[in-house]
Design goal:
This protein has a single domain, classed as 3-Layer(aba) Sandwich (Rossmann fold). The longest helix is centred in the middle third of the chain and has 17 residues. It has an 8-stranded mixed β-sheet with strand order 1-2-4-3-5-6-7-8, sandwiched between helices. 44% of the residues lie in helices and 20% in strands. The chain is globular and about 45 Å long. The two termini are 33 Å apart. The chain has 270 residues and is an alpha/beta fold. A hairpin with a 2-residue loop joins strand 1 and strand 2.
């Protein structure tokens, strides 16, 4: 029913990292989620993620990695990529398809640059090589709310910019309920991850990415803007660019063709 989903913890020297696995395929797909990982790791989310990514689970053995559980100050997206490489080594994953979403896409860029042998194919979804003014404003706002606001205010603000107006209307009540019962468990963790986004800049090194790459943007992305995906496409040689219509930054949840488009790319001859 849930594609052999399992919640796991990996010990890496002095570091622990939460991750989940699901799917029964022989080939591996590594996924790195976005900034929401700063509020909650993937611990306990195996069944939900398997259900969300069920199209992938039918074909691949999927690994979804959180950031390490205790993030040092000034930890960068590049440091986070090194942790993923270590985790792949520990699990015997020599080369995998890799997908990064939003902040996870920033990490995936560094993984492909610094550990090219680990990345067979690369999917960069609603992410950026360097934040624009729009992205800077959104992340700074969420950083401030995470430190001085309530969980309800933070979640409501994130959702209002991550979904289209039409989709947000459907989820508004749910996010209000989440705001009542949820809380920010670790202000330092979300702050470190947010700052790593603000400092992320891989633009001059993207030319080092040599693997087949698919870049997916959202037509109505109100977090990073559609221009971020176009810029990545211009700097990653030979990359494919797909802009999914009528969806916002949370396109992996909103757009029914997201997983289908990724699978077409993964199974292509490029």
């Amino acid at each position: 029913m849930f594609y052999s989903s399992k919640n796991k913890v990996l010990q890496l020297d002095q570091k622990n990292i939460d991750y989940v696995t699901f799917g029964t395929g022989k080939k591996s797909l590594v996924i790195m989620p976005g900034l929401g990982d700063g509020l909650q790791t993937v611990k306990g989310m195996a069944q939900m993620l398997a259900l969300t990514y069920r199209e992938f689970a039918k074909v691949y053995k999927v690994y979804v990695f959180s950031r390490i559980n205790k993030l040092p100050e000034n930890y960068t997206t590049r440091n986070m990529a090194a942790d993923v490489a270590d985790a792949m080594d520990a699990l015997g994953l020599k080369s995998s398809a890799v997908m990064g979403i939003s902040q996870g896409g920033m990490i995936a860029q560094w993984l492909a640059v610094d550990f090219p042998e680990k990345v067979d194919r690369l999917i960069l979804a609603v992410t950026t090589a360097k934040l624009s003014d729009l992205g800077m404003g959104r992340i700074r706002r969420w950083l401030n709310l995470s430190q001085t606001g309530t969980y309800k205010e933070l979640m409501f603000d994130i959702a209002s910019h991550s979904y289209t107006t039409k989709s947000f209307g459907k989820f508004k009540f749910l996010y209000r309920i989440m705001g009542i019962f949820g809380r920010i468990k670790d202000k330092q963790r979300i702050a470190i991850q947010a700052v790593s986004c603000l400092k992320h800049d891989s633009l001059t090194l993207l030319e080092k990415i040599n693997c087949p790459t698919l870049i997916i943007g959202a037509e109505k992305d109100d977090v990073l803007g559609i221009e971020a995906s176009v810029e990545l496409h211009q700097h990653v040689k030979g990359s494919q660019l797909t802009i999914l219509p009528e969806c916002g930054h949370a396109l992996y949840e909103q757009h029914k063709n997201f997983q289908k488009r990724v699978l077409v790319f993964l199974e292509s001859n490029q």
